[in-house]
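We emphasize that the prediction below concerns an isolated chain of 253 residues; any contacts that depend on oligomerization or on bound cofactors are therefore not represented. The input was used exactly as deposited, without trimming of termini.
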Amino acid sequence: MPKPSPKWNRKETLAAFNLYCRMPFRKVNARNKTIIALASRLGRTPAALSMKMSNLAWHDPNNPSSLKRGSKLDAEIWAQFFADPDAVIFESEQAVAFYEKRAVESPVEVDGDMQIPPGRERTQQTRVRVGQAFFRRAVLAAYQEQCCITGLAVPDLLNASHIIPWRENRERVNPSNGLCLNALHDRAFDRGLITVSATGIVEVSAELMTCAPTGDAHRFLTDSHGAKIQMPDKFKPTAEFLDYHNREIFLGR
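Result of the prediction step, given as a C-alpha cell string:
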C-alpha cells in the first residue's frame, strides 16, 4: 500500500498560493511546465500541486460555488491575504524563492505610477519591488493577459493599472485594486481621462470627449465610452476602489 503524502505545510501552501495568483486558471493542470518545475522543487507530483491550486480556488471569492473544500490552512492564508495582502504576498514570494534556491529580490518591470521613493532602505526597496512584480503578474494573469477594454493581447503593451493609485499607499499590491489595460488606456485612466464604474462600464471624461479629434488614437479612447469591461477570472475589481477612482481621480462628464 503506497505511503500517504505528508500534509502541506505553510511554506509549501504559500508557494502554491503564489503560483495560483499569477497563473490563469485555465492553465492549471499537471502538464503545465511551470507547475511541473515547482512541484519538483516541493517534492510533490504535478498532479498534487495542481490539485492544491484547485483547492485554493475554492476559497477565492470569485468562485461561484458556495461549497468549500481544501484544508483549514488554505482558508487561513486567504483570510490573512484579505487582511494584509502586502505581508502575505511577500511571505509567499519568500517561499517561492526558498524552493527555487534564489534571493527573493530581482529586477522587475515597473508599470505606471509605481515608483520607489528615494531614500528607502534596501529591505523596504526589496519589498516594494517584490510587490510590484507580483501585482503585475497577478493582474495580467487574472485578465488572461488581455486588455479588459479592447481585448489587446500583447503583454509588452499591457500594464497592471492601479485603481487607487500606488502613490496613495493603499491596497498597493492587492490584485483586486488592478485592471489590465493597454498602455494608452492605462495612461488615460491614471490621469482621470477615463474611468470604470462600479458595474464595469467605461466612462470617458468630457475633457476628452469634447476636445478636437486628433485621429485614430483619439477615437481609440473615445469609442470605449459605454463599453463594459471584460471581468477577470479572479481578483474582480472591488466596487469600493472603482468608486474611489470615479470620485477622486476621474475628471468627470
